[in-house]
Amino acid sequence: MSEYVKALFQAYYRQAPVDALVPKDIAKREFGFVIPGKKGMIRHQAFLEPKDYKGFLVQNTPVHAYHSATLYNSPWKDRMDLKDYTGCDLIFDIDCDHINTPCKKDHDTWTCKECSKQGTGKVPEKCPKCGGNKFDDRTWLCDSCLDKAKMETRKLIDNFLTRDFGLPLDAMAIYFSGQRGYHVHLERDDFRKMSTDARREMADYITSTGLSLASIGFLGKATTNIMGFTIKDPGWAGQISRGLFDLIEMLSAGKASTSIKERELELLKANKDRLKKRLLEHDTNWSFAGIGPGIWNHIIEGIVEDVRCDIDVPVTIDIHRLIRAPATLHGKTGLVNCKLTRDQLDPFDPFTDAVVFKGNAEKIKMLADVPRFRIEDKTYGPYKKDDIDTVAIGAAVFLMCKNMCEVLK
């Protein structure tokens, strides 16, 4: 971290309200920090008083700040078996790194460490030139990435946590992570008591892992009448029916799902009016000429792919996980971790609402090639190494946090 960015981070923490910075049950949580000039992560930190925690942030100006999702009676102990576990918040992490978005082809790059072959998009399992499996990769952020992460977060909250699990919105704490996605925290005692196996079962349900169509009542073999589900059905039967209804609406609007073959979409389109009527009337008869059980299986598998939610499962099932601390600055972007309500989630713009450094303009020199990016209402780049430009301070901090520019005096 440059002295320029460190001074800005320190000024932010000095004026930040202590109530915004402090997580619930602070005295029972372990904290971890990445601090400029110190190697690795500083673990096993604990704070009894909120003012002491804020004082630590101001004095040490961490690049990254985390707290445990877990509650302990002795969070400062340096061995896990001595901390005295009492429970763990249930955390869902939605990160656009784990979501396959087309924009990655435009702004993510990889280089093979063996032969220096370069490519764009997702890192391959093996280098197409030499067969090596070690790569340097550079990922980037754009509106499309974060829009997709937000869409997955809405699906998690609206389709699964509230509809299927019956949770009220006030049982959830929603956060923009400060970089690549969103976190949803469930902090009630009944969630904190869940075992790893119970958390895995919930994660499997949300991601459709192990879902069998036969187990929810759909026959995958030849039959005279094909009986489907209704949009009022509970569980995955209802999810599939509502997904089918949404697909029909998309087809009516001239749009399509990329998870379903074109031929199958054409068959649905030919029967969309009658199928929509049956869904609205809760009629389970899905028998239509030309759409046999095999085709229905393919269609439903495509719907499941669209409906399932892309959560980072290891985060949900880990009962000793550190999670980014609220209202702290992300050292790779300079953006702030923002707590949101469900109503605030839809209009939330990470590249505007999470920008805390505003006002001044800075003349900067690029230290590497920089893809196009947006901060607030202005788009910058793309730039080549050694290009010089004058940019808003939020844009300068964004690039400096990625070691991609320096401020010219």
Write the layout of secondary structure elements.
Elements: H1 3-15, H2 18-21, E1 31-34, E2 42-45, H3 50-60, E3 64-68, E4 70-72, E5 85-88, E6 90-95, H4 104-107, E7 109-112, E8 118-120, E9 135-138, H5 143-162, E10 172-176, E11 181-186, H6 189-192, H7 196-207, H8 235-252, H9 262-270, H10 272-280, H11 293-307, H12 313-317, E12 322-324, E13 338-340, H13 342-345, H14 350-353, E14 361-366, E15 373-375, E16 378-380, E17 388-392, H15 393-401, E18 405-407
Antiparallel strand pairs: 1-2, 1-3, 3-12, 4-5, 6-11, 7-8, 7-9, 10-11, 10-13, 14-17, 14-18, 15-16
Report the C-alpha radius of gyration, rounded: 24 Å
CATH superfamily of the largest domain: DNA primase, PRIM domain
Query: Count of helical segments?
Result: 15
In the CATH hierarchy, the architecture of the largest domain is Alpha-Beta Complex
Number of domains: 4
CATH class of the largest domain: Alpha Beta
Secondary-structure content class? alpha+beta
The overall pLDDT average reads 95
CATH topology of the largest domain: DNA primase, PRIM domain
Biggest β-sheet, characterized? 4 strands, antiparallel
- What sort of overall outline do the alpha carbons produce when their principal axes are compared? globular
Largest sheet, spatial ordering of strands: 2-1-3-12
Our estimate of the beta-strand percent is 15-25%
Uncertain residue segments:
none
How many beta strands in the DSSP annotation?
Answer: 18
Kindly, what is the distance between the CA atoms of the first and last residues, rounded to a whole number of angstroms? Answer: 18 Å
